[in-house]
Amino acid sequence: MSSRPLRPRIIVAANEHQKLFELAAGASHAAAESLLTEMERARVVPEGKLPSDVVRMGSRVHYRTDRDTSVEVTLVYPRDADISGGRVSVLTPIGAALIGLRAGQSITWEARDGRHHVLTVLSVSQPAERLEA
Predict the structure, then answer these.
(1) How far apart are CA 48 and CA 14, in angstroms?
(2) Which domain holds residue 119?
(3) In what residue span(s) does the Transcription elongation factor GreA/GreB C-terminal domain sit (predicted)?
(4) Any residues with CB less than 8 A from the CB of 8 and at least 6 apart, and which?
(5) How many CB atoms are located within 10 Å of the residue 46 CB?
(6) pLDDT at 99 over 60
(7) CATH number at residue 116
(8) Residue 1 has pLDDT above 50, yes or no
(9) What is the model's pLDDT at position 130?
């Protein structure tokens, strides 16, 4: 793995950006710090201008790990998280890494044990109600 972390450009809808910034600022652990860093570097766009292949809250994300494992999760707020149900909190290291990425992008993220990993987003789908809006 490269010694330089992968930090691709990310995009976040304005309404989610504010909520996520406040969520991260109000928490006090490493994943919250990661989310805050991501929100600070994100390009913020109006809700209607966010491309449909961008990972956002409620997105179903299919990604590949650096161990060549394929994983599919839904990105959710902490209160809705259920790892056994495939619902990953945005306040986890993997959740903070996923937010704002597009299909095809890779990012380096730090696990709770301090090890660095790379994931690549393979596909992103949005909930049906969001697509109808």
Answers:
(1) 10
(2) 11-126
(3) 51-125
(4) 101, 105, 106, 107
(5) 9
(6) yes
(7) 3.10.50.30
(8) no
(9) 53
